[in-house]
Write a structure and sequence with these properties.
Elements: H1 21-28, H2 36-46, H3 57-66, E1 89-90, E2 96-103, E3 110-118, E4 123-124
Helix pairs in contact: 2-3
Length: 128
């Protein structure tokens, strides 16, 4: 069955998709190498992102210490069903398909079903 993600078309879930070069450079820099001013910049940067709106300034400060930027090529598996989750992902641009594998108890045949699609402003990884 096809899944239509209504929330992807709501204006309140959109996230800032164009990272500034400075923000991207800081997010690529290993977290232990970020200066106090780097962390302050990243904390202020999160103020412009709708996907971080619900977090307090204290949490945003903590996020500034651990956030990192990563871009994935089309078709790349980011997390597999059942894997232990070590990361939490915020989608700034593009989309992610949610695919669930199920096994037929009678035949043992495995089937993949696309359960939905996540777009900018959404997050995943907390239940990997």
């Amino acid at each position: 069955s096809l899944v239509f993600n209504v929330s992807a078309f709501r204006p309140d879930v959109q996230c800032f998709s164009n990272l500034t070069q400075n923000a991207k450079a800081l997010l690529i820099k290993p977290s232990w190498m970020r200066s106090k001013s780097d962390l302050e910049y990243l904390q202020q940067f999160t103020l412009r992102l709708k996907c971080f709106e619900r977090y307090s300034m204290f949490v945003r400060r903590q996020l500034a210490e651990v956030l990192f930027y990563h871009s994935f090529e089309k078709g790349r598996v980011i997390i597999r069903q059942g894997d232990q989750g070590f990361n939490f992902y915020f989608i700034l641009s593009g989309s992610v398909l949610i695919e669930v594998q199920q096994e037929d108890p009678q035949t043992g045949t495995k089937h993949s079903n696309i359960m939905g699609e996540l777009g900018p402003g959404t997050s995943f990884g907390e239940l990997a």
